[in-house]
Design a protein that fits this description.
Length: 342
């Protein structure tokens, strides 16, 4: 078929634009949630449905953004330590999911890391290295147990005034789950979404699985491998996606909530493959923080996600359940490949 079957996890701008008209499809690229999003769908009324889908993305962004003043998240942060804020079902749901991942990962994923992310300037444009004592004053307020969710009144209270939440590590995964459900309700049976390089496949691509390339974290023009997927999400976290440099050192945007510093765990990217894109997004961030050994232990205790790890000593490792759907292509760039068994 006319459409290029290869979608690159983490490099949405690099996918080629195709003439979809002959395939009864439509494609759009927008900037939302601080990233590039690309949606491709097939079937009747594809263009009209895409227009509506775009509006849905902007609507979600308005609920989840830390910077948009009317957003639920902004209001929750503004009223921290003061009073509960009434929020949408969606905001309540995404925070609940964040709490689940927080428990599962023993705190490696924590949306209350927001004050630290802010201190590093990742939510603004002024990135900087905070002083050690500035961080040590903020770390006590990283505590998801102090988020009070009231599911009867649909409200959220942060117990301490210095607390804040940031959904950046989970919002794109949630949005992809939301959009794929929404598209299915519109009778769409074949689509692929790339929300900032996080890929969600709906159905098949002309009877074949969708092919998704996993980016080489050390070279944005190369891949480490190609995944074949159907009705699932492929979500990558890596220190190479968003970072700044100061005095010759690189500081990236995935924070270890325990130290307040960018996580240095020996991993350079973590790609999660799962049906539940929200959980996959939280896990990709968390497993990156945890490092290989703890991440593998968590995978061994779970049955609802698979992982491709890339380590700083140039190993690509795939968990057993995805190995058959993963074609390793990183040898030329100096990577070695192996699988991780249960
Ligand atoms: P990306 O947003 O680039 O796809 P992630 O899903 O890994 O990457 O999310 C990183 C974002 O999540 C950061 O920009 C920050 O807003 C937030 N964040 C950073 N560290 C953590 C953490 N340990 N737990 C939860 N959220 C985090
Ligand atoms: Mg994430």
């Amino acid at each position: 078929m006319g459409i290029l079957a290869l979608f690159t996890a983490c490099s949405p701008l690099k996918t080629e634009m195709q003439d979809l008209a002959k395939d009864n499809g439509a494609e759009t690229q927008i900037f939302a949630m601080d990233t590039v999003m690309k949606m491709t769908i097939y079937g009747e009324n594809a263009e009209e449905i895409l227009n509506e889908a775009t509006q849905e993305v902007y609507r979600l962004e308005k609920e989840f953004s830390v910077n948009i003043e009317k957003s639920d998240v902004y209001q929750i942060n503004k009223n921290a330590g003061k009073m509960p804020v009434a929020v949408s079902n969606e905001t309540l749901h995404i925070i609940q999911k964040a709490q689940e991942v927080n428990k599962l990962t023993k705190g490696a994923f924590d949306i209350t890391v927001a004050p630290i992310v802010k201190a590093w300037g990742f939510t603004t444009e002024k990135q900087r290295v905070p002083k050690a004592d500035e961080l040590s004053q903020l770390i006590p307020y990283v505590n998801s147990d102090w988020i009070d969710l009231n599911t009867e009144e649909n409200s959220v209270l942060l117990e301490k005034s210095k607390m804040a939440i940031d959904l950046g590590g989970i919002a794109k995964g949630y949005s992809s789950d939301y959009l794929s459900q929404w598209l299915r309700k519109k009778q769409v049976t074949s689509a692929i979404l790339s929300l900032g390089g996080n890929i969600t496949a709906i159905g098949l691509n002309e009877g074949e699985k969708w092919k998704v390339a996993v980016q080489d974290p050390l070279n944005e023009d190369e891949f480490t491998g190609i995944l074949a997927i159907e009705d699932e999400s492929v979500i990558t976290s890596g220190g190479y996606q968003r970072y700044f440099e100061q005095d010759g050192k690189r500081y990236h945007h995935i924070i270890d909530p325990k130290s307040g510093f960018p996580a240095e765990s020996g991993l350079i990217s973590v790609t999660i493959i799962a049906k539940d894109g929200t959980k996959a997004d939280g896990l990709s961030t968390a497993l990156f923080v945890m490092g290989l050994d703890k991440a593998v232990a968590l995978w061994r205790n779970s049955d609802d996600f698979e992982v491709i790890f890339v380590t700083d000593d140039k190993k690509v490792l795939a968990t057993e359940g995805i190995a058959d759907s993963f074609e390793f292509v990183g040898a030329e760039q100096g990577y070695t490949y192996s699988t991780i068994s249960r």
